[in-house]
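A sample follows:
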Amino acid sequence: MLPKPNRLRAGSDFNLITKTGARFSSPNLVLYANLAKTEQPKIGFIVNRSVGGSVTRHLVTRKLRHNFASHIQVLPNNLMIVVRVLKSQNDYSTEVNQLIEKALLKFSSQNNKADL
């Protein structure tokens, strides 16, 4: 379960991250990430009605929260992430791992350039 302080809830934050953040995609997911002034990493999910009914969408969200909860410790404190689900899938763990690796590579290189 993703702790409450790590959940992204404000609609304005979702808009900001999806419009200005870096985009990483896989066949079933799109991950948007952006650096912000937060004390902890924050993650939000967008699961469209095309994925399925309410029960299916909530199940997908719970699975994704569980997948991201194991990665919270390695994410930078100032990172905000929005995950958009494109298709329903039984297991997203492989895609989540790949997208997080891509995001961490991009933002760690940006942090290294900023330190110079």
In short: The chain has one domain: 4-109. Helices lie at 11-20, 54-69, 93-115.
